[in-house]
């Protein structure tokens, strides 16, 4: 519509209103085509023949009497799709370009990176890919004014172009995190060009090789995040020349070496030090106590050893200390915690600490999460732990603590406690059915497994209205499964395996509200508890909300038949009833468990046939009905064919080609059951509470290693909780 345009232009000059030029409008034109908003929003605002300075998201400079020029294009979260046109790079006055949180694809045109006017460029959270190209070396204006580049959370790959940003003498912030960049870490020549370069985030990429020593020349660098890459070698001495650093973070790489005390004190402004998930060795240097601004130390999942530096007790601003999964030893009490009044999270699990819990910890009244599991602590819990009024997560598992009655009496009044993991202690003690234990009103996860404990399943558990997960396996608990389990409205994970429970499976168990619902809803605060779950040898991550609904009753002395109402537990993913004394037939109602992934009924006395429609359970990936008294054909067709012979073995009257037993053969002999019940106690879920995750007291504290990342190689040093 050339005439309309002309008209607008004439109006503009006549009334001295600032309008954008034809050239600029043409540059922008493509944007309207990216909008997926339909008729509303952008498309409505961006009409032909109107002044583009009035378009939504566009700002122009308004010098009266002059043609306006576009300065800002702010179109974050506008559902834009398609590719970015190079024409944006030729808008002469464009200073701010923000296209974040759209679905833009294709590459980033080199003309934009080399624009002579852009100051802030944010194209984060799109679907952009390809290499970032070096700008043509001829353009001397190239990126001269740019201060902020955010290309994070896209799919860029290839090497990071170094020559273009060496010209960027005003660069302050570069965020290239969460892409697939490869090659060496970007060169730090930039710090010679731009002496105020302050923020570099290249985490979650595939950068490899050494950390470049040139980093030491970045005298204004405040934040350096390079975690979750493939960096190797040691941290170069020169890095400690970058004395403005406040945040230094290299988690989940392949770095080694020791923390040099003389070097680290040079970083006197350090607030966050995160070197977790590497292979650092040696101990914590005493000089760390002189870093007075330190708020977070994460050295978890390394190979560090020795006794703790008492000087840690002088880091008076400390909020999080994470030393989990190393080889530290000696008394935790080497550190006097009484000056660390701001401490919120203390994580020293999976080490070799000895002695008792130091009394000084009980003065840290802001402590939110205390993780002491898998060490060699002993003694009784002090009543002073009640001072920790904010405590939500307490893990004492796999130590040598004693006196469970005392422990429960002390902790019951910790009102904010949501997770209590105390298994692997209290060896051979009796759990009293103590009616005076009440409290724990906010408990969501209770684990008292593997002690082993004697006694009945205590009735006070019935009062834990918020309980979502209960782990009592590997004890000597006796008596029957209490019918009150059905009134625990939130419970969806029940593991009572390997006890001496007897009697029938109560029909009430099939009334469990959470297991009957279509979907399990957890109210666990994801920041407080993240559970990595290992299904078989390879870890599989569940967010808390999709943590599986599970009922594990195997290896007990349960009798009677499987209640036919079992089919009501719609949300069950695993039903494990193996190694009991169950008899009767496999009820057809089991076919109603449409979400089932694992079904184990092995080592019982079940009779009758295998329901042919088991094939309809689409998600079933593990089946074990071996060592029963089943008969008739193994259902064929569908995915049942993929299960190994061992799923069906030990049922002499079952037939099918898989068992080399022709179903038409009239002589199916009645062999006495030869198999023994040695309790093939298979690893199904191995859970290590908080082993991988710092308990995220702070929002960005929890790290989620990529499945192929280094983090997992550290599995070797983790004696996992065998939650089976
Ligand atoms: C871009 O816009 C988004 C959404 O408004 C905002 O969160 C972000 O901070 C902006 N980027 C810059 C660099 O200002
Ligand atoms: C991109 O990074 C810049 C600089 O760190 C920041 O100001 C901006 O908010 C980020 N954009 C988004 C969408 O988070
Ligand atoms: C970089 O961007 C990511 C999102 O893509 C964000 O999570 C991160 O905090 C940013 N880094 C900095 C230093 O702002
Ligand atoms: C990484 O990018 C993906 C895709 O944009 C996004 O879903 C995810 O939240 C990002 N991760 C981080 C840590 O910002
Ligand atoms: C730091 O910069 C100086 C020049 O300003 C240079 O001589 C020196 O080699 C640089 N150091 C490193 C480690 O690059
Ligand atoms: C990581 O770097 C090492 C060499 O340091 C290399 O052998 C390995 O293939 C790299 N791994 C990935 C996933 O890039
Ligand atoms: C930087 O560090 C190196 C090695 O630690 C040292 O030799 C050098 O003098 C330092 N440079 C400056 C400018 O401080
Ligand atoms: C810890 O320090 C406090 C003073 O800050 C002191 O009163 C207390 O005795 C010390 N505790 C130990 C075990 O040294
Ligand atoms: C206990 O939890 C409640 C609710 O989450 C919170 O309001 C309260 O401040 C907490 N108490 C302490 C001492 O942290
Ligand atoms: C266990 O603790 C209780 C106090 O709760 C105490 O009365 C009892 O003596 C303790 N038992 C042992 C063996 O120390
Ligand atoms: C069953 O529990 C007991 C007691 O904790 C333990 O000794 C035994 O190893 C467990 N059995 C299996 C197969 O895990
Ligand atoms: C299992 O129960 C039967 C009777 O129901 C009893 O005779 C047997 O001793 C029990 N076995 C165990 C190991 O508790």
From TrEMBL:
The keyword Translocase does not apply. The chain crosses the membrane at residues 683-703. It is a single-pass type I membrane protein. It is found in: Cell membrane. Residues 1-19 form the signal peptide. Belongs to the RLP family. This is Leucine-rich repeat-containing N-terminal plant-type domain-containing protein. It comes from Oryza punctata.
């Amino acid at each position: 519509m050339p005439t309309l345009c002309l008209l607008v232009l004439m109006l503009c000059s006549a009334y001295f209103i600032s309008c954008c030029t034809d050239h600029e409008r043409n540059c922008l034109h493509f944007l309207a085509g990216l909008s997926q908003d339909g008729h509303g929003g952008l498309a409505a605002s961006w009409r032909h023949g109107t002044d583009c300075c009035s378009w939504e998201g566009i700002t122009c400079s308004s010098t009266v009497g002059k043609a306006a020029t576009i300065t800002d294009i702010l179109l974050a979260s506008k559902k834009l799709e398609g590719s970015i046109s190079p024409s944006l790079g030729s808008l002469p006055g464009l200073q701010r370009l923000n296209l974040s949180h759209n679905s833009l694809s294709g590459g980033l045109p080199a003309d934009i990176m080399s624009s002579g006017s852009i100051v802030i460029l944010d194209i984060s959270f799109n679907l952009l890919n390809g290499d970032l190209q070096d700008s043509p070396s001829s353009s001397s204006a190239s990126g001269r004014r740019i201060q902020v580049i955010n290309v994070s959370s896209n799919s860029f790959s290839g090497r990071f172009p170094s020559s273009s940003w060496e010209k960027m003498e005003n660069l302050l912030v570069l965020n290239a995190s969460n892409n697939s960049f490869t090659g060496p870490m970007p060169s730090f020549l930039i710090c010679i060009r731009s002496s105020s370069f302050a923020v570099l985030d290249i985490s979650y990429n595939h950068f490899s090789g050494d950390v470049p020593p040139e980093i030491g020349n970045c005298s204004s660098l405040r934040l350096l995040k390079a975690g979750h890459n493939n960096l190797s070698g040691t941290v170069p001495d020169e890095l400690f020349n970058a004395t403005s650093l406040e945040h230094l973070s290299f988690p989940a790489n392949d770095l080694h070496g020791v923390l040099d005390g003389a070097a680290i004190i040079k970083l006197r402004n350090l607030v966050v030090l995160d070197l977790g998930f590497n292979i650092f060795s040696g101990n914590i240097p005493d000089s760390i106590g002189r870093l007075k601004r330190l708020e977070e130390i994460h050295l978890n999942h390394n190979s560090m050893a020795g006794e703790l530096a008492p000087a840690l007790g002088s880091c008076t601003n400390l909020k999080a200390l994470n030393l989990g999964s190393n080889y530290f030893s000696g008394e935790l009490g080497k550190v006097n915690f009484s000056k660390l009044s701001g401490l919120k999270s203390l994580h020293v699990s999976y080490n070799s600490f000895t002695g008792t819990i130091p009394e000084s910890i009980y003065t840290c009244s802001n402590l939110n999460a205390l993780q002491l599991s898998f060490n060699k602590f002993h003694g009784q819990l002090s009543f002073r732990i009640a001072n920790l009024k904010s405590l939500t997560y307490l893990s004492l598992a796999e130590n040598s603590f004693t006196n469970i009655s005392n422990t429960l009496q002390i902790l019951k009044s910790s009102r904010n406690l949501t997770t209590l993991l105390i298994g692997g202690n209290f060896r051979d003690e009796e759990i009293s059915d103590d009616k005076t234990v009440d409290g724990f009103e906010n408990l969501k996860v209770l684990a008292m497994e593997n002690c082993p404990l004697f006694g009945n399943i205590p009735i006070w558990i019935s009062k834990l209205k918020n309980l979502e997960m209960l782990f009592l396996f590997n004890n000597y608990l006796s008596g029957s499964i209490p019918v009150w389990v059905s009134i625990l409205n939130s419970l969806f994970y029940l593991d009572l395996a390997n006890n001496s429970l007897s009697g029938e499976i109560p029909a009430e168990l099939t009334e469990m509200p959470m297991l009957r619902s279509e979907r399990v809803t957890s109210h666990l605060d994801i920041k407080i508890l993240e559970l990595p779950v290992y299904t078989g040898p390879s870890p599989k991550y569940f967010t808390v909300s999709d943590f599986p609904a599970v009922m594990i009753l195997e290896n007990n002395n349960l009798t009677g038949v499987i209640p036919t109402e079992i089919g009501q537990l719609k949300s069950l993913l695993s039903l494990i009833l193996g190694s009991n004394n169950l008899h009767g037939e496999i009820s057809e109602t089991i076919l109603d468990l449409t979400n089932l992934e694992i079904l184990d009924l092995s080592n019982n006395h079940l009779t009758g046939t295998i329901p042919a429609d088991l094939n309809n359970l689409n998600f079933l990936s593990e089946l074990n009905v071996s060592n029963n008294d089943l008969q008739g054909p193994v259902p064929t067709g569908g995915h049942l064919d993929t299960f190994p012979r061992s799923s069906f073995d030990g049922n002499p009257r079952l037939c099918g080609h898989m068992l080399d037993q022709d179903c038409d053969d009239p002589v199916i002999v009645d062999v006495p059951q030869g198999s023994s019940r040695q309790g093939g106690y298979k690893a199904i879920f191995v859970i290590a509470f908080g082993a991988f995750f710092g308990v995220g007291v702070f929002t960005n504290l929890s790290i989620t290693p990529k499945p192929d990342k280094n983090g997992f190689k550290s599995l070797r040093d983790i004696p996992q909780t065998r939650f089976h």
